[in-house]
Amino acid sequence: MSKKYWQNFGQLNSSPSIEQPSEDEFPSALPLESESLADAKTPRRDFLKYVGFSTAAAAIAAGCEVPVRKVIPYVNKPQDLTPGIADYYATTYISGSDVIPIIAKVRDGRPIKIEGNELSAVTLGGTTARAQASVLDLYDTARLRFPMADGKEVSSLDQFDKMVGAAIAGSAVVLLTPTITSPTTKQIITDFLAKYPGSRHVQYDGISYSGILTANEASYGKRAIPTYQFDKAKVVVGLSADFLGTWINPVEYQRGYTRLRKIDEKNIEMSKHYQFESMMSMTGANADERFTHKPSETGAVALALLNAVNGQPVSGVSASVKKGIEKVAKELLASKGASLVVSGSNNSSIQVIVNAINEAIGANGTTINWAAPLLTKQGVDADMATLLADMEGGRVGSLLIYDANPAYDYFDADRFKAALKKVKTTVSFNERMDETTELVKYVLPAHHYLESWGDVEIKPGSFSMLQPTINPLFKTRQLQDTLLK
Hints:
Layout: H1 9-12, H2 16-23, H3 35-38, H4 44-61, E1 87-95, E2 98-107, E3 110-116, H5 129-138, E4 148-149, E5 152-153, H6 157-168, E6 173-177, H7 183-194, E7 200-203, H8 210-220, E8 225-228, E9 235-239, H9 250-259, E10 272-277, H10 282-285, E11 289-292, H11 298-309, H12 319-334, E12 339-343, H13 348-360, E13 368-374, H14 381-392, E14 398-401, H15 406-409, H16 413-420, E15 425-428, E16 442-443, E17 454-459, E18 462-466, H17 479-484
Parallel strand pairs: 6-7, 6-14, 9-10, 9-12, 10-11, 14-15, 15-16
Antiparallel strand pairs: 1-2, 2-3, 4-5, 4-16, 8-13, 17-18
Helix pairs in contact: 8-13, 11-12, 11-13, 14-16
């Protein structure tokens, strides 16, 4: 308490230039014009009391009528808009082949928050970090703001339509998109391609699930991904499948998985979860038991598990993994008809083995539902390989690209870039100047999904709508409108 601190050298040296202004900062006596108060030594605090009382008295005498100044004036105020009060719009988040029904919170005409739609029978109100952050994409300064040709702005959309229409006339057109889940958009694409003989639509997903599609076609004659009902599985085995994090449809799988992981009076028994993987994942971190192996051993682990459930010797894996497989096989057979095995491999041969395991444990028709297949993730690697060969052979006259960036995320991106140079007319409808868009001749950015109308069908009979939550911010246009033009 005896220590003394100085704010500057002036205080330390008792400089007059510092001490005088500080003494005059709060004078005790105030110069007043009133004779009754002129002789009094009025403290500053008492003076403020007098002023405050007189101001309040004046306001009361005037009837407290203060002029109203509107913060947001309207000449014609929108009927359903109240400044500062949020509105909520049901729409659908779409990014590539990811589809999630959402609720957009809109305040003063601007979307500010995304939440899941609890009325969705598929997601039950679930959402993802990407969907939550997608509202920021709407205001991203990196978005393209106008149509371009050869890197220069095109003055109007009509002029752009004439330029591209003339360029693609008489040529075979290929439309390259991610998985399209909209029935309306599919019909528009069909009508558009019918105008150009020899044209086709190629669906390409940056994260491919072609292996499981091809395996299901070979095993069951259906090129589709069934619904995995984790809420009915007493024993769950994951083979490098991060179904709680990123695999296929994690929002739906999280909801089903957690139902049997919570014990209450209705659910007195908790499911068991075993995970075989080569690196830590969100799913592996939540497993009851986790077994690690080399990435190159994924197929051997799947084959060993198939042999174990069929009563055959287990071989080709390490001792620790072998012990785990033998234990898991007993658990799967003990819960036959109420167990499930899933694999994150994109190798169709491994997925065929997994299909055989699920057949052996009675998963089909119980924990695997083929009556409601998932309509997302429909891209097949063979279709993309065929397109690449046709581009290299000069058999593609025009390539139209929407919401796909193979120059960045295709496994042989350099080959795609080289093949793209052999296509006469190239058009991109991507929202940003990504690696693919910067290589094409014509660019017409599409609307953000929060600026768009539309529909999606996540599963047969399960529809979700899109509606705009804000007027388009830039000179953009929906893909559907462009194809119709």
